[in-house]
Task: inverse folding
């Protein structure tokens, strides 16, 4: 077993803190969504995590998740209506 260096351990801790902060922000946004929007997000997550999804499907699902969590308020000109 290779011993982790102090620098590697520090870098891992920073990366974990950044990932945890991003998760906390996204989870809060998710919890603030309506039940219908949460369901739509879960459906999109299934597409993203499906290894058989086409790249275009995955990209569209990721954009839909982003719009659902952090709406751009462009009066429906982009994305899908998730409300």
Result:
């Amino acid at each position: 077993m290779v011993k982790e260096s102090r620098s590697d351990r520090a870098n891992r801790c920073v990366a974990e803190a950044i990932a945890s902060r991003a998760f906390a922000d996204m989870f809060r946004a998710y919890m603030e969504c309506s039940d219908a929007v949460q369901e739509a997000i879960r459906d999109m997550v299934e597409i993203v995590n499906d290894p058989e999804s086409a790249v275009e499907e995955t990209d569209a699902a990721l954009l839909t998740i982003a719009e659902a969590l952090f709406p751009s308020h462009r009066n429906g000109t982009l994305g899908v209506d998730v409300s």
